[in-house]
Amino acid sequence: MDEWSRVRDLAPDTDVAAADIAAARRQLTAQIARAPGAVRARNPRTNRTAIAVAVAIVAVIATSAVLITQWMPRPAPQLNSGRLDLSQPLLEQVPDGSYLRIATTTESAYVAELPTGDGDETRLADGYLRIRSTSTAYVPTSGGAWLFGWPEEPAEVIERSGPDAQALIDGRGWRTEPTIYRSTDSPVVDPQWLADLPTDPDGILVAYAERFGMRDPGAPVEPDTAIEPYMATMLASWLITDAAWLLAAPSQREDLLETVRSVDDVTVTERGDTILVEFSGMSSSTATIDAASLLPLRGTSVAEPVVTGRSTADLPPDTWSTEITIVEAAPAPRHPDDDEFTARCNGTTIPGSAFGSGARPDELDADGRAALSADGVPALNPEEWFLVSQTADTVVLMSFELHAEARTRGPIPSGLPGPTHELLTLSREDGQWRLAEWESCVLEQVREGFDNADVELDPAFALTPDTTELHFLVTERACNSGQSAEGRIELVEKAEFEDAVEVYLAIRPPGGPAECQGNPPAPFVVELDEPLGDRRISDLTYMEIRTLRE
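Below the sequence we write its predicted structure tokens.
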């Protein structure tokens, strides 16, 4: 069984043909490769759900459920006079400390399923919305991480069609909250990779296959491992809209255009001041290239009819165009969940912004770099560590990887296999930086207005398949003069699934002075929506789900 067979698990009542799944798989693969460099999976809940989400997307496509706009090429630039001479290498014209800003505007059709009012039944909306969204990339002159706005500003509805258009707007599925994030992953371009780019079409296609993760870097190219025609067409559509084309030298742009021209299912036509590139095969799309600079100007794409029984011929094509400018500064990283998500590691609070946009060790300022060079501080892999906080005399970094060199190990609650994260604290005393602490921990969530507690099932109450109430013993960690937390315990979160019941119990702080001498457990009862059966019971206090009963 491979991962794509999970489609049938997610939609057991749907007869999905193998060809439908194969088509969905190709679309998802293409969409992932064209997406912006993956946002670092620093939110600890993201890691364990990313694969499930990807498989769910395949199920959605293959079973005819949601978005029609499945094929949207990555943007290419619109001619911009500004301070840039587009006939010359672009990044070389950017002053030190400034950024090359690539702002891409896309306009695409959005269609979704709407509830029928009969239970969970849905129907395809009669109509569509046309959505405009602008995404950005900020390319530094110094190399290293780029900043991406995906999108930088909220999307907007620019056209509505059909009687269900207002229902689509109210559904809000088309909205994407503005996010600014830092990344060193594709589509970030390694200057050395670009300098070493081959000049022949076959070599360029192999290099791009490696760039997009479709081949192992450096693997020998044998006749039976050559780029297949359908893959070559896909690669051509990607490379013409990839950021590397924008940073290429003029002679390299010629090589890239010749590579596109050499591919099957691609037609290249010179039209005076522009060059029209037309792609056919998996999807129908076009790109218009400026004949003078050999930089793409704009393009269109037509969504595949992935929704059963619905032709997309009546939908307007997706369009894109991009403006390239020089800016003196880039926006600060931000994520829509930054202000809502907070965690704790052995008592140290970790703000949500750190998970999404905390600087890597190689991105720290002068003080931060000085701290990392102190005696006893190990060489930190920039792919593993990120900045949590920094003051004049303290630098705190976190890692998702565990290392044998960690000095201390935080408490490991029952039901968890071991620590999940590490915290490295550097402090400056008498002008000298030193390694103050290197500790592992089990990351736990933090909710405003609540204190976490130690939670266990009450052994006095046996669990049977007919159980409809879960009895817990909840012990307050905070000082409370040896008194229980009875009356201040709350069910903050409960989720019931076919195979599990998950709860998050927390305590309202007592307020006022108290002695610290340990507290007795307090009973708390959670009512179930359905009898327990053989479902697992889990505690959501920690970012890794803690099992209380298998």
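The chain has a mean pLDDT of 80.
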